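Sharing a chain and its predicted structure for anyone who wants a worked example. Both blocks are below, sequence first, C-alpha cells second.
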Amino acid sequence: MCGRFTQAYTWREVYEFYSLNGIARNLQPNYNVAPTQMINVIGRDDKGFKMRDMRWGLVPSWWKKPLKELPSTINARSESVADKPMFRTAFRRSRCLIPASGFYEWKRDGDEKQPYFVSMADGSPMTFAGLWEIWHEPESGEEMRSCTILTTEANGFMAEIHHRMPVILTPEEFEAWLKGDAASVLKACNDNLLEARRVSAAVGNVRNNGPELLEPVE
C-alpha cells in the first residue's frame, strides 16, 4: 500500500521531467503527505501534460453521502480496480500521473514497525499510476477533483519491507497508462530502480513535516 509519501521538488524539476505545459508555480514541499490532503497530479489535455491539485482519496462522481462516511480510497488494488464500483469508472476514462519524490513504508520487526523512505535510485521524480474523478458536493454543487494511487504486489526489493507497493511508472510507460494499455504497466517496477533507507518514527505523526524526516537513522 501507500499511506504516506513526499512531494518535495521544484517546478523546474517536474517541468523538465514531465514536459509540462502551463504557467510556472511556486510548489511548496510536503515531506509527509497524508490522506485527504491536496496533492500535485498530472494529467493530459490537448496541449500536453498539465499539473493541477486534487484531494488524495478518490470520491466517485456518484457518491451522495457525507465525505466522512467514505471508506478509504487513497489506494486502489491494480488486480481488482477494473471491477470495483469505487474505481471502475475512473479506470476506464480518468487516468493520471502522481509525481512524488518518494514514499514511506513500515516494516514490522516483532512488535515494532520501522519506517523506510523509498525513492528512485537515480534521484529522479517517482511517478505513481493514478486515477481521478470530479465530484460535486450534493448541497452546494461545489466541484472537487480527487485521486487515488494504484498498488500492486511488491517486487523483490520492496518485499523485504512490505508485501505491497505503489505502481511506479517509468517515462516510457506514461503514454501507455494514460491511453488505456493497463495490462502492460500495472506491475511492480524493476528492483534496481529503487533505493530505501530507515528513517525516524517521527514520520508517523502528520504534524511533523520537514526535510529531517528523510534523514537516515541507524
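Comments welcome. The chain has a mean pLDDT of 95.
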